[in-house]
Design a protein that fits this description.
heterodimer; A: alpha+beta; seven-stranded antiparallel beta sheet; 25 strands; 46% helix; B: alpha/beta; Purple Acid Phosphatase, chain A, domain 2; OB fold (Dihydrolipoamide Acetyltransferase, E2P); eight-stranded mixed beta sheet; five-stranded mixed beta sheet; 19 strands; DNA_pol_D_N (chain B)
Chain lengths: 1219, 497
C-alpha cells in the first residue's frame, strides 16, 4: 500500500506524466488540470463507434473530448489506426473555421443525446477521458510559458476538432476559477486516472497486488467527482456545457454513487477471474483488458494494476519494454534462397529480452518428424537455450504464436525481417493457412474471439484463417514506402523492427550484413554459413551436426539483441529502443513514427502544439497550392575554396545552429511575416494569399525588420499608441511561434544538459535518457528550417520565410567573412566558407597564435550579432588540403595542448563509400605521409610499393570490393544504364528470384579482367565468383589503379603539381609470381564449389566456357627460380642439378601453405564457422571477415602448389577438404 | 700400447611397421570426416562395452537417447569440448602472411568450458566428475552417471579404454641400445656442428675409452626424430628462389647428409620428418624425400620413415611421433607435464584424438590409420616417445620416465673443454637420482608396461636419449636395471680457460 501512496504523491505529477506521449498530441494540457474518466462508461461504449465521446462535464473547461475511441487509438500501434491517424493529421489537422464550428455543434448535439441516454440508463456520468500524458521535457517547456493552454485534439474518425476561438476565450476568462477548484480534486485520484490511461499502453503482466489496491482506492475517485460536480451547478458555464448540465442536473451525482458500488463489485470480479484464470492463456487477459469488446454480462473493468504506475524511464529504470528477436532456418533447394512457397521451416530461434532486468532468454523450436526425437529431453546438448521439438510445421507455428502471445513482447526484431525472420514465417504461415501476423498481434482478429486455448484443428478454423492469410500477403507487399524504408510488416500493437535497415543509420559500413555489423559494433566475428550447408547439418540429426544449426540461429537471434544493447553503451550512439523512446517522448509522436517518418513530421508535431497555445492555426494547403507558391530564390553561401595545400594553420569556425538562431534572433516566423515589400505576384505569401493591412504597417513602421530578401517581419516588441491623450503605450509581445519553439527547445536542451551534469555516476541509465533527449532536441532544432523550405513534399512550406532564413544566414556569414578579412590585427584571410562555417588562413602564424586569434574572431563575431547567434571556434587545421566545395582534409587540433593531430577528412574518398577500401586506404596513407613528411618523393615511393603489390596480386580482395546501394525499380528502363551493382543484383535474380536485393541494400561487386574492349558493365561480378577457389577470374588491377586510385589521388596531389599517371607509367611492372605451370582448370574435382555460395549462376557457365585465356597458356618460368624455360618443364635445368633444393622448396612451400590453412581453419573453428565432424572444412563465407579472404587466397595457392608438388612427387596430394 | 681388440657392433632384428602410415600416390576426394568419428566410436564402443561389466557390473549400458532422469547408467560416446573462450585470435592475426604464426600457441582453456557427450542418437552436456581441462574433443569414453533434472548428465566415474594388450618381451641377455635424437635443426642459429660431431663420434665408437666403446658397440640403431633441418621461411613463402640463394637451402641439407653418412656407415639410422622439415604438414607425415640425402641414402642402413614411426626391434615395439599430437593436446587441454599428455593418449587408446578436429590429418580411413592406430587391436608399443619442442633439463627427463618398473636412468654427459686450441674431451657418465620415487605407475588392464620418453631438442639441450632394449643388469650401476631403461647422452661445450 505504501508504494501506492508514494505513487500518488502530488509531487510526482511530473514524473507520472513522463510517459510515452500519445499520437495526437492531445496530452498537451495544463498539468494541474487533471483528467478523470469513467471506466464503466468506457466499457459501455459501442465497439468501433466513430463518434467522439462527448464532453459533458461542464466543469472541465479545458474540454477533453477523447472518448473510448481516442483512448483506444492511442493504445496499440495498430497499423490501420495509425495510417488513418496519419492521414488525418496531414489532411485535416487544420480544418477551416467553419468546419470547426460545425463539428462543435454536432458534438454538442451528441452530447445532449448521450446525456439524456445516460440519465435513464444505469450508466454513470461521463467525464472527458484524458491521460495527463505529458513529457517531462514538455513539462519544463510548459513551465516556461506564461500563458494558458488550450488544447488540440485529433480524433480517430477523421474530423479533427479544434477548440474554437470562442471556447478558448471562455477558457481564458474563466480559466482561473476552474483552475482553482480543480486543485481541490484529490491528488490521488488524479494520478490514478492518469495512470490508468497510461498503463493501457503497457498492458501486459498486471501484478495481482495492485488489484487489491485499486479496489480500495476507488471510492475517493467517486467522491472527487461528486465534489466537483456540485461545483458545476454553481459555476456559470458556457452555453453548450450549461445545457448539458442543466438537462441532467442530478444524474451525475446519482450515477456516480451507483457507480462506486458497481465498481467495487466488479473489481472483486476481476480479482476472482484473474485468480481462477491464472493458468489461462494471456490472450484472454488481453481480451479482458480491451474495454471495447466487453459485453454487458462480462463487464470487466480495466485491471487496476496500473495504479501506481510511474514511468520507470524518468527514474532511470529503462523503458520497460520486452524485445523479441526472431530468426529462422528454413529448407532450401540447392543454391537458391529459401522461398516460403516451397521451403519448410526447420527451426525458429527466439531471443527475448526484458528491458527491466536485461536477461536474455533463448528458445529454439525445431521441426523434426523423425520419431526418436520426440522424447522429452533435448538431444542437442546445447547449454543456455531451451529447445522444443515439434513434429509438424503447423505445430511449430502454433507454438510460436502462443509463445509470442504469452510473452507479449512490445518490439519484434529480426535482422532481415522481410525475407528472413518474421516475414518468412508470415509468408510460410500464410501458405499453410495460418494468419500468423494477425494472431500474434495485440488486436486479435474477431474469429479468435473465443479463447484460443480451445484446440484449433478444425477445418473451419483453417478456412477462416486462410482468408486472413491473404491479408498477410497483401500486408507484406502492399505498402511501398514502409516496405522500402521500414520493416514492411505490421503486427497490430507491436513494433516490428527491421534491424539491418536501422543499422544503416547507426553505423557507417560498406556492407550491412549481420556479420559486418556484429564485427563493427561488438568486435565479434560471426560466421555466415550457406543455407545449403546448414540444412545438411540439420539433416544429420541430433547426434551429429544439428546442434551447430541450432547454435548458429540462436546466436543470430541473440546477437540482434546484443547489437541493440551495445549501441546503447557506446557513448555517442544510443540504443535504438532507448533513444527512439526518448525521441518519441520529446516530439510527442509515437514510437514507430520516430523510426519510419521523416523530420517534418516531428517538427510539425511540436510546432502545432505550440501554435495552438498561441491561438494560431496552421494552414493546410493542397498540393496545387504548394506547387504554385513562388520559387525559392536564395541559396546558402558556399564558397569555392582556394584549392591548395596549406602548410600554415587554418582556423575553422562555425556558427552554432545558424538557422535556428536566425529564426530566434530576427523573429522569423509564419506568424510575424508581413509579406514582401515588392511581391512578385500581388497578395501572395508562400502558399496562401496575403496582403498586409496598410494601417497596421504604418503603425508598425518602426518595429519592422526587412530581411535581405525583401520580406518584412514584425519584431517581438511592438508599441501601439493607444491613447494620444494620455500618452499611453501598449507593449505587445508578438513573438513568432517558430522562434518561440526554437527558443524553448534550445533552452530546454541547456536545462537537460545541466541536469545531466548533476547526475551521479550511478545514474547511468538516466544519464543516457537525458542525453538522448538533448540530442533529440538538437535534432529537431536543426530541421526546423527544412520544414519551412520543403517545397515539394512539405505540408506547410513558405518560400519567403525559408528564403529569409537562408538569406539572413548568408548575410551573417558574409558579414563575418568581411569583418575577418578587414581586421587589421589578425591579417587573416577567409579561404573557404560553407553555409555556417568559415576557414580562416593565418599565414605565417604558429599554431598557438592560431588558437588565440581563432578565439578572438569567435568572440568578436558573436558580439556583433544579435543574441543567440554565436560563432564557435572549432579547430585548427595544420596542414590541410582544400580541394573543392565540401571536400577538404587536414590534420586537426582542437586544443592548443593537443600533440597528436586527428586526421580529419570531409567529402574525399577516405570517408566516402562509393569507392573500394583500397582507394580509401591508399589515399589516407599518402595524405598522411604528405602531412608528416611534406615530401612528394616519399609519397611516390609509397605509391609505387602499393601499385607493385596490387599488380603482383599480393592483396586481399576485401579491399577491392565495391558495395553500392541498389534501388531496383528506380532505374530507368534501359538496361545499359544500370549501375554495376544493379547489374550484379539483376544477374543474381535471374537464377534466384528471392535474391532480389532489399531496397537500398548495398550489393557488393568486383571488377575483373574481361575480354578486350569489354565495358565496365561486362566486367563486374559478385565477389563470390572471384573468391571461389577454382574461379577463372582475375581481379582487374589496372582498372582499380588507373580508374579508381589514381584519379582520387590526382585530385589531391595534383594541387602540388604531381602527375600520378606519369608516375604509374614510369614504374617498372612486377612479374606475377606463377607457382604452377598451368592455372588450374576451373571446376576441377568435386570440391571446387565446395563451401562457396554463389549468388550468380556464373559458375557453371564459366566452367563450360573454360574461363579465361590464361587457362590455355602455360607458364614459361621455372617455378623455383623463375628463369625462362621450355614450355612443358616445371623446373629449369639449373635447379634440377640440385634436386635437394627443389624438393625442399616445393615441399616447404606446400607445407607452409598447408600449415597456414590449418591455422586459419583453427581460427574459424573458434568463431564457429568450421566443423570437422559432419562436413569437413570451413564453411563460413562471411564477406565481412578478413579471414575468409585470406583463406580463399591460401586455398587457391595451396591448390596450385600442391598439385604441381604432387605431380613432381615431392609431396602427397593434399586433402581435398582444404580447398 | 695394446692393440685394441676389434669390437663388433651388435645386431638386432628390425622390422618397420610404417605401412599403415603410408599415403600411396592417390588423390583424396573429399571424404567425410564423420567416417573417422564414426569408425572410432564404433571400435571404441565395442571395447568399452566389453570392459563395462567388469567395471561397474550392476549398471545398464545405454545410449544418449535412452537416458532416464535420475537413473544410474553407463553411456559410451565421443566427447566434444565446448570451449567458451574465444581467444581474440584475430587480433593476433597478422595483416600479412608473415613468418610469425597467426595464433600464438598459448593454452586456450577456460574455466567455463564444458564437455558434451555425443553418440549417434544425440548429445548431452556433462557435469560432475569429469574435468573439462583433462579432456579434448574426439576422445571416446564410457561414463557412469545419471541425468539431472536440467537435462545434464552428472558424471560419477569415467572409464577409458586403457592400454591394448601387449606381446611378451623376449628375454635376450645382451645389452642393446637405441639412440634417439631430435631437433638437430641443422642450419639454424642454435645448431652446433661440434656438438653433433661429438655425438656421432660417440655413437660410432670413435670416442672414449674401452668402456664407453663397449657401450657404443651395443647401440643397434639411431632414430633421428624430426626437425632435422632448418630452412629459412623466406625461401618457402612462395617467392622465387634465385640461383644465388639456393645455396642457403642446399648447405644445411648437405651438412646433415654428411653427418648422417658418418652414422649410417656404421649402424642403421631411421629419420623421421618433423613439423619444420620439408615434408607434408598433415599427419601422417610421409618420409623425407631420398634426394635430400644423396650420400646417406646410398647405404642400406639408412631408412627414411613416416612421422608416426612404428618399428619392432627384437620383439620390442616402438612407436613415436614428432610431437604434433601432443602439442595439439597441449593447446586444448591441461596437464602437469607433457608426459601426462602422452599417458592420456595411451589411456584413451588413441594417438591423436584431436585429429581431425584441430590437428590436420589425411582423412581416408582406409589409408591413413592415423586416428585409428591405437584402437584396431594392435598390441601396444613398449616404448612410446615423442619429440618435445622445448628444451628441458635432464631432471625433466628423469620425470619423463614412468614405467611399471622402479627404474633408474643413466645419463651420459660429455663435457668439452677448449684449452689453448686443444680440445680435451671428458666423457662422463652421470647418474640422476633426483626423483628416486616415481609417481604410481600406470598399469594397463593386463599389466602392460610402456615407457614414455620425451626427447628434448638436441640443438638446444645437447641431449640424446639411449634406450636399452633388453633386461639386463647394467654393470656399473648398483641397482638392478630392468629392461627398457633409458639413458641420456648429453653433449655440451664449455669454454673455460
Amino acid at each position: 500500500h505504501t508504494s501506492y501512496l508514494n505513487s500518488v504523491n502530488p509531487n510526482s505529477t511530473a514524473s507520472v506524466g513522463n510517459t510515452i506521449p500519445q499520437v495526437d498530441g492531445s496530452s498537451d494540457e495544463n498539468p494541474k488540470v487533471s483528467q478523470e474518466y469513467d471506466r464503466s462508461k468506457l466499457t459501455r461504449k459501442a465497439v468501433g463507434s466513430p463518434s467522439y465521446t462527448p464532453t459533458k462535464n461542464s466543469s472541465k473547461s479545458a474540454s477533453k473530448r477523447a472518448g473510448t475511441e481516442h483512448l483506444w487509438g492511442s493504445l496499440p500501434f495498430s497499423r490501420k489506426k495509425r495510417t488513418d491517424q496519419n492521414a488525418d493529421d496531414s489532411c485535416s489537422a487544420m480544418p477551416s473555421q467553419k468546419d470547426l464550428s460545425g463539428s462543435n455543434k454536432s458534438t454538442a448535439e451528441k452530447n445532449y443525446h448521450d446525456t439524456t441516454g445516460n440519465t435513464d440508463g444505469e450508466s454513470s456520468s461521463f467525464v472527458g477521458v484524458h491521460g495527463s500524458v505529458c513529457h517531462s521535457v514538455r513539462d519544463l517547456m510548459r513551465r516556461r510559458r506564461s500563458f494558458r493552454h488550450e488544447q488540440l485534439e485529433f480524433g480517430n474518425s477523421g474530423a479533427a476538432t479544434c477548440t474554437s476561438d470562442k471556447e478558448s476565450e471562455t477558457v481564458n476568462s474563466g480559466g482561473l476559477k476552474f483552475h482553482d477548484f480543480t486543485i481541490d480534486v484529490p491528488n490521488s485520484a488524479m494520478a490514478y486516472s492518469g495512470d490508468e490511461c497510461l498503463r493501457m499502453t503497457f498492458a501486459q503482466k498486471p501484478p495481482l497486488k495492485n488489484h487489491v489496491c485499486s479496489g480500495l482506492e476507488s471510492p475517493p475517485g467517486c467522491e472527487q467527482r461528486e465534489c466537483y460536480l456540485s461545483y458545476d451547478e454553481g459555476v456559470p458555464a458556457d452555453n453548450e456545457e450549461a445545457r448539458s448540465s442543466t438537462l441532467s442536473p442530478n444524474s451525475p451525482t446519482r450515477s456516480a454513487s451507483e457507480h462506486s458500488t458497481t465498481k467495487v463489485a466488479v473489481d472483486g470480479d476481476v480479482m476472482e477471474s484473474i485468480l481462477s484464470n491464472k493458468e489461462s492463456k494471456h490472450l484472454d487477459e488481453c481480451h479482458d483488458f480491451s474495454q471495447i469488446s466487453a459485453e454487458k454480462e462480462k463487464d470487466k473493468l480495466t485491471p487496476l494494476s496500473q495504479i501506481g504506475f510511474r514511468d520507470p524511464a524518468s527514474i532511470g529504470g529503462g523503458q520497460q519494454l520486452t524485445i523479441f528477436s526472431m530468426e529462422v532456418l528454413t529448407e532450401s533447394r540447392g543454391e537458391l534462397r529459401p522461398d516460403p512457397r516451397f521451403d519448410a521451416i526447420n527451426a525458429v530461434s527466439l531471443a527475448i529480452e526484458d528491458d527491466a532486468d536485461n536477461t536474455v532468454e533463448v528458445h529454439v523450436f525445431i521441426r523434426d518428424n523423425s520419431g526418436k526425437s520426440r522424447s522429452r529431453r533435448n538431444l542437442d546438448g546445447i547449454a543456455g537455450c531451451n529447445v522444443d521439438v515439434f513434429p509438424e510445421e503447423r505445430d511449430l507455428l502454433n507454438n510460436l504464436i502462443s509463445t509470442v502471445c504469452s510473452i507479449d513482447p512490445d518490439i519484434l526484431v529480426g535482422w532481415e525481417i522481410q525475407l528472413g525472420s518474421l516475414g518468412f514465417l508470415a509468408e510460410r504461415a500464410a501458405y499453410l493457412g495460418i494468419g500468423l501476423l494477425k494472431r500474434i498481434s495485440r488486436t486479435p482478429p474477431h474469429e479468435v474471439n473465443h479463447p484460443p486455448k480451445v484446440p484449433v484443428d478444425d477445418s473451419s478454423q483453417v478456412l477462416a484463417e486462410a482468408t486472413s492469410a491473404d491479408d498477410v500477403i497483401d500486408d507484406v507487399s502492399e505498402n511501398d514506402w514502409s516496405h522500402t524504408h521500414a520493416s514492411g510488416i505490421h503486427v497490430g500493437g507491436r513494433i516490428v523492427l527491421n534491424l539491418w535497415r536501422l543499422m544503416r543509420a547507426e553505423v557507417k559500413l560498406n556492407n550491412y550484413s549481420l556479420e559486418a555489423v556484429a564485427d563493427e559494433v561488438l568486435r565479434r566475428k560471426m560466421p555466415l554459413i550457406p543455407n545449403r550447408i546448414l540444412n545438411r547439418w540439420f539433416a544429420t540429426g541430433p547426434g551429429r551436426g544439428r546442434h551447430r544449426c541450432i547454435e548458429y540461429i540462436s546466436n543470430r537471434a541473440r546477437i540482434n539483441l546484443e547489437i541493440m544493447n551495445q549501441l546503447d553503451l557506446v557513448n555517442l550512439i544510443f540504443s535504438m529502443v532507448n533513444r527512439t523512446s526518448e525521441l518519441a517522448r520529446v516530439f510527442g509522436i509515437d514510437f514507430f513514427s520516430v523510426l519510419s517518418r521523416g523530420s517534418q513530421y516531428r517538427v510539425e508535431s511540436m510546432l502545432l502544439r505550440l501554435a495552438h497555445t498561441q491561438n494560431y492555426l496552421a494552414i493546410s494547403p493542397g498540393n496545387q497550392q504548394v506547387a504554385s507558391q513562388p520559387a525559392m530564390e536564395c541559396l546558402p553561401l558556399v564558397m569555392e575554396p582556394e584549392s591548395a595545400f596549406y602548410p600554415d594553420p587554418v582556423v575553422v569556425l562555425d556558427f552554432q545552429s545558424l538557422y535556428p538562431s536566425m529564426i530566434i534572433a530576427y523573429n522569423l516566423c509564419y506568424s510575424t511575416c508581413l509579406g514582401k515589400v515588392f511581391p512578385s505576384k500581388s497578395n501572395v505569401l508562400g502558399v496562401s494569399s496575403y496582403s498586409a493591412d496598410p494601417h497596421t504597417l504604418v503603425d508598425l513602421k518602426n518595429q519592422m525588420l526587412l530581411t535581405p530578401n525583401g520580406v518584412l517581419y514584425v519584431q517581438p516588441e511592438v508599441m501601439f499608441l493607444i491613447s494620444e491623450q494620455y500618452q499611453m503605450f501598449f507593449i505587445l509581445i508578438r513573438k513568432g511561434a517558430l522562434p518561440r519553439l526554437l527558443e524553448e527547445i534550445l533552452s530546454t536542451r541547456i536545462m537537460v544538459k545541466q541536469a545531466m551534469k548533476k547526475l551521479g555516476p550511478s545514474e547511468q541509465v538516466l544519464h543516457r535518457i537525458f542525453n538522448a533527449r538533448q540530442l533529440a532536441l538538437k535534432l529537431i532544432a536543426n530541421v526546423t528550417y527544412g520544414y519551412t523550405a520543403a517545397g515539394f513534399s512539405g505540408r506547410m512550406p513558405c518560400a519567403e520565410l525559408a528564403d529569409s532564413i537562408v538569406q539572413c544566414g548568408r548575410r551573417t556569414l558574409e558579414t563575418a567573412i568581411s569583418f575577418v578579412n578587414q581586421h587589421p590585427l589578425w591579417k587573416a584571410r577567409v579561404v573557404y566558407g560553407d553555409t555556417d562555417s568559415m576557414f580562416v588562413l593565418l599565414k605565417g602564424r604558429s599554431r598557438e597564435e592560431a588558437f588565440r586569434i581563432g578565439k578572438e574572431i569567435a568572440s568578436s563575431i558573436s558580439a556583433i550579432n544579435p543574441d543567440p547567434v554565436t560563432l564557435k571556434f572549432e579547430k585548427v587545421y595544420q596542414p590541410c588540403f582544400l580541394l573543392t566545395k565540401k571536400r577538404y582534409v587536414g590534420y586537426s587540433y582542437e586544443s592548443p595542448d593537443q600533440n597528436e593531430p586527428v586526421f580529419d577528412a570531409k567529402g574525399i574518398e577516405t570517408v566516402r563509400r562509393d569507392t573500394c577500401p583500397a582507394v580509401a586506404k591508399i589515399l589516407e596513407r599518402s595524405i598522411r605521409i604528405m602531412f608528416e613528411e611534406q615530401d612528394l618523393t616519399k609519397v611516390r615511393s609509397y605509391l609505387e610499393r602499393q601499385w607493385t603489390r596490387i599488380l603482383s596480386g599480393k592483396v586481399s580482395i576485401r579491399d577491392f570490393i565495391f558495395a553500392k546501394e541498389v534501388r531496383l525499380g528506380t532505374y530507368s528502363a534501359r538496361a545499359s544504364t544500370l549501375p554495376p551493382a544493379a547489374i550484379v543484383a539483376t544477374k543474381a535474380m535471374l537464377s534466384d528470384p528471392r535474391a532480389e536485393p532489399r531496397y537500398a541494400e548495398r550489393v557488393p561487386y568486383v571488377v575483373i579482367h574481361g575480354e578486350p574492349g569489354a565495358r565496365l558493365v561486362d566486367m563486374v561480378i559478385d565477389p563470390y565468383g572471384l573468391l571461389e577457389v577454382g574461379s577463372p577470374y582475375r581481379l582487374n588491377e589496372l582498372y582499380y589503379i588507373t580508374k579508381q586510385i589514381i584519379p582520387a589521388l590526382q585530385r589531391v596531389f595534383g594541387l602540388l603539381g604531381a602527375d600520378l599517371n606519369k608516375w604509374f607509367n614510369e614504374m617498372p611492372r612486377p612479374i606475377r609470381p606463377t607457382l604452377a605451370k598451368r592455372q588450374s582448370a576451373p571446376g576441377h574435382g568435386l570440391f571446387s564449389r565446395d563451401g562457396s555460395f554463389i549468388r550468380l549462376g556464373l559458375n557453371n557457365k564459366a566452367c563450360g566456357k573454360g574461363g579465361r585465356i590464361d587457362t590455355y597458356y602455360m607458364s614459361s618460368h621455372c617455378s623455383i627460380c623463375s628463369d625462362l624455360i621450355q614450355g612443358s618443364d616445371t623446373f629449369c635445368e639449373n635447379c634440377l642439378k640440385n634436386e635437394a633444393v627443389v624438393a625442399t622448396v616445393v615441399a616447404g612451400r606446400t607445407s607452409k601453405l598447408e600449415r597456414e590453412i590449418q591455422h586459419l581453419a583453427a581460427i574459424c573453428g573458434h568463431c564457429g564457422g568450421a566443423d570437422w565432424i559432419v562436413e569437413s572444412g570451413v564453411k563460413c563465407i562471411s564477406l565481412a571477415c578478413p579471414v575468409f579472404y585470406e583463406r580463399r587466397k591460401i586455398q587457391r595457392e595451396l591448390r596450385v602448389v600442391s598439385e604441381s608438388a604432387g605431380e613432381a612427387g615431392y609431396y602427397p596430394f593434399c586433402c581435398a577438404e582444404l580447398f | 700400447m695394446p692393440v685394441p681388440v676389434p669390437m663388433e657392433r651388435k645386431q638386432a632384428a628390425y622390422s618397420n611397421l610404417d605401412e599403415r602410415y603410408a599415403i600411396q600416390g592417390e588423390k583424396y576426394q573429399g571424404q567425410q570426416y564423420s567416417h573417422i568419428y564414426f569408425t572410432r566410436l564404433h571400435h571404441m564402443r565395442n571395447l568399452l562395452h566389453a570392459l563395462a561389466p567388469s567395471w561397474k557390473p550392476q549398471l545398464p549400458v545405454t545410449t544418449v537417447l535412452g537416458l532416464e532422469k535420475g537413473k544410474d547408467c553407463i553411456v559410451v560416446g565421443t566427447l566434444y569440448k565446448h570451449m567458451k573462450l574465444k581467444p581474440s585470435i584475430l587480433d593476433e592475426y597478422s595483416k600479412e602472411r608473415s613468418a610469425v604464426p597467426l595464433v600464438k600457441p598459448h593454452n586456450f582453456m577456460h574455466p567455463d568450458d564444458h564437455l558434451i557427450l555425443e553418440d549417434e542418437s544425440g548429445r548431452v552436456t556433462l557435469a560432475g566428475a569429469i574435468p573439462p581441462a583433462a579432456f579434448v574433443t574426439g576422445v571416446v569414453v564410457a561414463l557412469h552417471g545419471k541425468e539431472t533434472s536440467v537435462g545434464n548428465f552428472l558424471v560419477e566415474d569415467v572409464l577409458e579404454a586403457g592400454l591394448p594388450p601387449q606381446t611378451a618381451l623376449s628375454s635376450a641377455d645382451e645389452d642393446k641400445y637405441v639412440v634417439f635424437v631430435s631437433g638437430l635443426s641443422v642450419g639454424s642459429g642454435t645448431f652446433n656442428p661440434l656438438q653433433f660431431q661429438l655425438l656421432i663420434d660417440h655413437i660410432t665408437g670413435h670416442l672414449g675409452d674401452e668402456n664407453e666403446q663397449t657401450i657404443a658397440s651395443n647401440i643397434v640403431r639411431v632414430v633421428v626424430a624430426g626437425n632435422s633441418v632448418h630452412i629459412s621461411p623466406r625461401f618457402v613463402n612462395g617467392q622465387t628462389v634465385a640461383s644465388k640463394d639456393q645455396s642457403w637451402i642446399a648447405e644445411p641439407i648437405k651438412e646433415l647428409d654428411i653427418m648422417l653418412t658418418q652414422i649410417v656407415a656404421s649402424l642403421p639410422v631411421d629419420i623421421m620428418p618433423g613439423c619444420q622439415d620439408p615434408a607434408n604438414f598433415s599427419l601422417p607425415q610421409q618420409p623425407l624425400h631420398r634426394c635430400l640425402f644423396s650420400g646417406a641414402s646410398t647405404y642400406n642402413t639408412f631408412s627414411s620413415c613416416s612421422n608416426p614411426h612404428q618399428f619392432e626391434l627384437d620383439s620390442v615395439q616402438f612407436l613415436g611421433t614428432s610431437g604434433q599430437n601432443i602439442d595439439d593436446l597441449y593447446k586444448y587441454s591441461d596437464a602437469k607435464d607433457k608426459l601426462e599428455f602422452m599417458e592420456r593418449t595411451l589411456r584413451w587408446r588413441h594417438l591423436a584424438p584431436t585429429a581431425p578436429n584441430s590437428l590436420g590429418n589425411y582423412s581416408s580411413p582406409a589409408q591413413s590409420g592415423m586416428p585409428t592406430v591405437k584402437i584396431v587391436g594392435s598390441p601396444s608399443s613398449h616404448i612410446y616417445l615423442f619429440i618435445q619442442d622445448a628444451i628441458h633439463t635432464q631432471t625433466r627427463i628423469l620425470s619423463l620416465l614412468k614405467v611399471a618398473h622402479t627404474s633408474t636412468l643413466l645419463g651420459i654427459k660429455i663435457n668439452m673443454k677448449l684449452d689453448c686450441w686443444k680440445v680435451v674431451l671428458h666423457v662422463k657418465l652421470c647418474m640422476f637420482f633426483e626423483h628416486p620415487t616415481y609417481p604410481p605407475c600406470y598399469p594397463g588392464p593386463e599389466k602392460q608396461k610402456v615407457r614414455l620418453i620425451s626427447i628434448p631438442r638436441f640443438s638446444e639441450s645437447g641431449v640424446a636419449v639411449m634406450v636399452c632394449t633388453v633386461m639386463h643388469d647394467y654393470f656399473f650401476i648398483q641397482f638392478n636395471l630392468r629392461n627398457l631403461e633409458c639413458s641420456t647422452l648429453s653433449f655440451s661445450t664449455s669454454f673455460d680457460a
